Amino acid sequence: MHKVLLSVLFSLILVATGSSVALALQAGGAVVGDLETGSVIGQPFSTLDVDLEFLAVMIGGKKAWYPGTAILDLRNQGTLGRRGQPVLIKVTNTLDGDHGFSLSADSAFAGPTSLQVKTVLKPGETKYIGIPMVDLTFVTAARNMKVKCQLHAAHLASNLVIFK
Are 148 and 102 in contact (CB under 8 A)? Predict the structure, then answer.
């Protein structure tokens, strides 16, 4: 009887611990919006500096996200020096048709709590993505995220490399 009670108690502790870790890794979440009305963790987008910018462009007859590789520096002298202020990404579609924007960890290294952002931009549209610093802290072991069009697999992807 004592062994059964002990095993039930131990199981409950494991479940509670696992769920609290999952909640900690998903604190806040990324927010997609426009510059005037968007906000992340209570801070309006208009008060934040743009850290990264991605453009949907036509290069050599192929649709792609530009730049091919972007770097986000979260080390002490980089973005982290802003005392936990969220990261703001500006995304613009310069093409003549709808274009998807997907930011996620490389599928080979993605965990169940990894950051994933998806949005669709109309021609000429600009959107802003606010990401809380805590969500970027636990992004991926490889510190590499893929930026691609989730609507069209043939479009060229980009990379976001995170230094932490």
Answer: yes
pLDDT digits (tens, 9 = 90+) for 33-46: 999 989 998 889 99
d(Cα 101, Cα 148) in Å, to the nearest integer? 6
User: Strand 126-131 relative to strand 87-93: parallel, antiparallel, unpaired?
Assistant: antiparallel
Q: Which domains does the chain have, with CATH numbers?
A: 29-163 (2.60.40.420)
What per-residue confidence (pLDDT) applies to 83? Answer: 67
CA 44 to chain centre: 18
The backbone torsions φ and ψ at residue 115, rounded to the nearest 5 degrees and listed phi first, read -70, 130
Q: Give pLDDT tens digits for 47-57.
A: 998 999 999 99
What is the overall mean pLDDT for the chain? 80
Single-letter code of the amino acid located at 112 = P
Which residue matches tokens 């949907």?
Answer: 56
Burial-class residue 33 by CB neighbours within 10 Å (0-12, 13-18, 19+).
Answer: middle
